[in-house]
Each structure stands twice: as C-alpha cells, then as structure tokens.
Amino acid sequence: MMQRCEMCEASAVTVRQHEEKFVYGSGEDQVLLSAVVPVYECGECGEMYTGHEAEELRHEAVCRHLGRLTPREIRTIRESYRLTQEKFADVSGFGVASIKRWELGNQIQGESANNLLLLLRMPSNLLLVQEANKKQAFQPRFRTKISEIALQQSIEFKLRLPVVVEKAA
Ligand SMILES: [Zn+2]
After folding, report:
1. CA of 44 to the centre of ligand 1 (A)
2. Percent of the chain at pLDDT exceeding 90
3. What is the pTM of this model?
C-alpha cells in the first residue's frame, strides 16, 4: 500500500530507518535510550514524521532497559499455548485487563508479574500451575460434617505468633 503524506497527502513518501535517542525516566533514574524507528519523509512538502511502529519500538526499548518482557514477547508466550487473553488470565491468575494493557503496551508489568511470565514461558511450569489450579477447583469446602467442638478448636487455633513470655509473679 502506498504511503500518503500526513500533511499534503502526496504519495511521494519515502521511508528510512533512523536511530532515535530519547530520554526515559526522571531524576537520578533518567537515561538516554535509543530505538531504530522508521521515519517517513515527503518528497513534496518535506514533512518528516514517525508512525505507530515508532511508538512500539520506543516502548520495547524501555522494556529492554527495565529488563521486562516486551508486549510482543508476552503475546508470543500466550499464543504459544494457543490461549485467549481470558484463558491466559485463568491459568496465570493475572487480571485479563492487565494482560490487555501489557500486550497493548499501555502499561509495563511489574517485576513479580514479569518473573511469573518468564517462568510461564516454560511449558512444564504452565503445566504445574494448571495442575495446582485443578486441585484447588475440586477441593471440597468441608470433606465431612465437622463437629461443633472441632469448629471451636479450629477457631482457637492460630498460626504461630510471637510468643509473649509472662513475667513470674
Ligand atoms: Zn507532504
């Protein structure tokens, strides 16, 4: 498809790859990142502009800088299992809204989410998680009728708390 100039609509648009430097972060965390992006130039009016791909490439550069999976990589993991975003949400425990935001590049996943995604890249880990979810789903709430006394005792049972040592009288 012929590219048309965004300004004058002429079809004399050429594209070239350009290494773009941009600032990311603020304060002490501020860094200069670079991304090779396609730049469009109009032979008629001289207008130069970047498109949506440039946005994605800048976003990927930020992800790489932070050591996080890129939106494309997250999508590749999910699609390697032929899972919809909804099914992937079920398996992973992530919210489907989060998965959508990550894959669209509207948000970069946090460190712990990124770690889990990295682990889920291995099929054996996905299987492990699926097995655990299955067991949880079939766990009966109460296996047998629990007596009043047993219930009373279970309420009194507490996880080990810091032990308070009473002073001798
Ligand atoms: Zn033009």
Report:
1. 5
2. 69
3. 0.73
What is the CB neighbour count within 10 angstroms for residue 25?
13
Is the separation of the CB atoms in 53 and 30 below 8 Å?
Answer: no
Cα 23 to averaged position of ligand 1 atoms, centre (Å): 28
Tens digit of pLDDT for each residue in 37-60? 999 999 999 999 999 999 999 999
CA of 18 to the centre of ligand 1 (A): 19
Domains plus CATH for the chain? 11-66 (no CATH), 67-138 (1.10.260.40)
pLDDT at 141 over 70: no
Dump pLDDT digits (tens) for 70-98. Answer: 999 999 999 999 999 999 999 999 999 99
Task: From 57, 69, 70, select the one nearest 22 (Cα to Cα).
Answer: 57
Ligand 1 center from residue 122 Cα (angstroms): 48
Task: Report CA(61)–ligand 1 centroid distance (Å).
Answer: 29
Distance from the alpha carbon of residue 10 to the mean position of ligand 1, in angstroms: 5
Ligand 1 mean position, distance from CA 4 (Å)? 8
Distance of CA 58 to the CA centre of its chain: 16
Which of 157, 92, 103 has the alpha carbon at shortest distance from 127? 92
Spatial distance between the Cα atoms of 30 and 116, rounded to a whole number of angstroms = 27
